[in-house]
């Protein structure tokens, strides 16, 4: 039911876009981001309930990365630490750039299908879970 995946990203790669590309290439219908350790040279993070984003200049250590993987969209939340150990976190956006390396581990769920549909209650597209028959 759960299929593990692992890969490494290298200098200059966009963290969010690279994970989405991997999900598309593998044809994953549903999954989760399990772990990611590495470094960013730049982080673009949307804050809770804010339209503004936090733009951080590295070096930044990736402490955690978690999220939900759908075929056309990855919803990821990240925490990073700067050189003094101060931690920032929020919703990962495009424009967060890997420096040196990022080690990514994912889980794919063979029995589930994740999609996103507009939800008038939130104003966003929200996760829709479907259980696949076997
Ligand atoms: Zn989010």
UniProtKB/TrEMBL annotation:
Gene Ontology MF terms: DNA binding
Q: Give the SUPFAM superfamilies listed for this entry.
A: AF0104/ALDC/Ptd012-like (SSF117856)
Q: Which residues form a coiled coil?
A: none
Specify the PPC domain's residue ranges: 1-130
Q: What is this protein called?
A: DNA-binding protein
Q: What InterPro entries has UniProt attached to this entry?
A: PPC_dom (IPR005175)
Record carries keyword DNA-binding? yes
Which key words tag this protein in UniProt?
DNA-binding
Keyword set includes RNA-binding: no
The record's annotation in PANTHER family points to: DNA-BINDING PROTEIN, PROTEIN, PUTATIVE-RELATED
């Amino acid at each position: 039911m759960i299929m593990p995946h692992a890969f490494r990203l290298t200098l200059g790669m966009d963290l969010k876009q690279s994970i989405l590309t991997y999900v598309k290439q593998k044809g994953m219908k549903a999954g989760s981001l399990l772990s990611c350790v590495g470094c960013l040279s730049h982080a673009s993070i949307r804050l809770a309930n804010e339209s503004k984003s936090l733009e951080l200049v590295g070096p930044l250590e990736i402490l955690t990365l978690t999220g939900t993987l759908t075929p056309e969209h990855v919803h990821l939340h990240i925490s990073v630490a700067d050189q003094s150990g101060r931690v920032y976190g929020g919703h990962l956006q495009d424009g967060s750039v890997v420096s040196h390396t990022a080690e990514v581990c994912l889980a794919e769920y063979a029995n589930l299908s994740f999609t996103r549909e507009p939800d008038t209650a939130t104003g966003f597209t929200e996760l829709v879970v479907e259980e696949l028959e076997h």
